[in-house]
Amino acid sequence: MKYKYQIVGILLSVIGISIPAYSATKVTIGTVNNSDMVRMQALSNEFEKMHDIKLEWIVMDENTLREKLTEDISNKGGAFDVMTIGMYEAPIWGKRGWLHPLSNLPVEYGLIDIFPPVRDGLISEGHLYGLPFYAESSVTFYRKDLFAKAGLVMPEQPTWSQMKEFASKLNNPGQGQYGICLRGKAGWGENVALITTISNSFGARWFDESWKPEFKGAEWNNALKFYVNLLGKYGPPKAEKNGFNENLALFNEGKCAMWVDASVAGSFITDKSQSKIADNVGFALAPKEVTAKGSGWLWTWALAIPSSSDAIEAAKKFVMWATSKEYISLVASTSGIKNVPPGTRASTYTEEYLATAPFAEITLNAMAAADPINSTMRPKPYIGVQFVAIPEFQDIGTNVGELFSNALAGDITVAKALDNAQSSTESRMRKAGYYN
Predict the structure, then answer these.
(1) What mean pLDDT value characterizes the chain?
(2) Which residues contact 28 (CB under 8 A, 6 or more apart)?
(3) Residue 98 and residue 89: Cα distance in Å, rounded?
(4) Tens of pLDDT, residues 414-433
(5) How far apart are CA 356 and CA 350, in angstroms?
(6) pLDDT at 137 over 60
(7) How far apart are CA 177 and CA 147, in angstroms?
(8) pLDDT number for residue 403
(9) HSE of 56 in the Cβ direction (CA atoms, 13 Å)?
């Protein structure tokens, strides 16, 4: 079609009629700077070869991405044609009419091949509002060589108390080796995601059954004190600055004896081209404490199309390509099967993949154990493991994340952080009409 258009333009110009210069449809993609997305950008020229579509990439860190995408879509700004969002945003934004529903997907796309909990987390009122690029739970990564040298054995699912004991024995800051690395960077998808799973395992919950915040409870106090003490004693300096990518870099450098974070990191920390300890990584489920409920999160980074896009059909072609079985095969052929986007499709988990990727089985087990409905020891009114699936949570979680990060930095006490979290969350929930 492109060449036919150009030939017609040449013929018309001969007789003195001019037409506008041809240009391909442009699709602007807003995405996070995680390694899988960086690889997707690098491979996207394969998509452009197949389609008359030009891709423009805007790559941001996680907190900036969420801020920019939320601002644009809520104001119908139209700056993006494809957005990288997750299980929190898709149902809420879809229900508000901010996202284009992804209906009538062709049979060959294989929607039925996507794991039901991942697919269902992107649905609202029967409409699918995102296609999953990769999915994850949280797991425990540890150095097998350091454990063997110290005579330690990692259980299939350790307790947080055991993790503290391990960290105390493996901490050697004089040699640049820290007992444990954990998220400390403020953000509802950064430190709040991890701390919420810790609090779940300590028996806490964000809200009681009447939607009243519970930060004044003993469970939250125990959980946050434990986290601050553990990371303060046995974590790297300025841990409040570290999110997923920073801790990934530390672990790959051999500076963390243990790390609890997203299972998607498995392919990177076992890749010899980027990890100094690739042959010595062990895997376990995320730690529990008084309960295993909600100890590991469930998340997918998905590709969605805002309703404000003026290139919806082109954007749909891209999100289908980037989340397809064909894309997974492309990654396998160019980067190795171990590096394919994990957690989304049953067809990915072949005998070859399970044998090649040492993290594959733990990823499936952890995702299977994560239950967004029943993720706390006591009943709760909300859906979500590491987040609360209500529109107000983005603001609430951002504020609480700042308070928790300040407590970790020593700028405020744990008691003050929890008091402020309680009062600010109560105010926000009252204003939103959850209770008087």
Answers:
(1) 94
(2) 56, 58, 79, 80, 81, 82
(3) 10
(4) 999 999 999 999 999 999 99
(5) 10
(6) yes
(7) 13
(8) 98
(9) 9
Band of pLDDT at residue 167, cut at 50, 70 and 90: very high
Lookup: tokens for 247: 């801790």
**pLDDT at residue 1 is higher than 50:** no
Given this model, what pLDDT does residue 436 score? 80
- Residues 259 and 182 sit within 8 Å (Cβ to Cβ): yes
Domains of the chain: 2-135+298-356 (3.40.190.10), 137-297+369-431 (3.40.190.10)
CB pairs under 8 A, 24+ apart, for 421-427?
421/213, 421/215, 422/213, 422/215, 422/216, 424/396, 424/399, 424/400, 425/213, 425/215, 425/396, 425/399, 425/400, 426/212, 426/213
CA distance 154 to 398: 33
Length of the chain: 436
Q: What is the mean pLDDT of residues 19-31?
A: 78
Cα separation, 83 vs 30, whole angstroms: 5
Close Cβ partners of 365 (under 8 Å, ≥ 6 residues apart): 285
For residues 219 and 210, what is the distance between their CA atoms, to the nearest angstrom? 18
Does residue 397 carry a pLDDT above 70? yes
CA 196/CA 44 separation, integer angstroms: 35
Question: What's the confidence (pLDDT) of residue 24?
Answer: 82
Interhelix angle for 218-234 vs 393-409, to 10°? 50
Compute how many other C-beta atoms are within 10 angstroms of the C-beta atom of residue 436.
4
DSSP 24: P
> Whole-angstrom Cα distance, residue 256 to residue 265?
14
C-alpha to C-alpha distance for 287 and 284, rounded to whole angstroms: 8
Rounded distance between C-alpha atoms, residue 178 and residue 257, angstroms: 6
Beta bridge partners of 164: none
**Cβ contacts of 357 within 8 Å, gap of 6 or more:** 266, 267, 270, 337, 338, 342
Q: What is the pLDDT of residues 202-231, one digit of tens each?
A: 999 999 999 999 999 999 999 999 999 999
- The answer to whether 302 and 128 have CB atoms below 8 angstroms apart is no
- In the three-class reduction of DSSP (H, G, I as helix; E, B as strand; rest coil), residue 99 is classed as strand
Q: At CB < 8 A and 24+ separation, what contacts does 357-360 make?
A: 357/266, 357/267, 357/270, 358/266, 358/270, 358/281, 358/283, 359/139, 359/263, 359/266, 359/267, 359/270, 359/283, 360/266
Q: Is the pLDDT of residue 6 over 50?
A: no
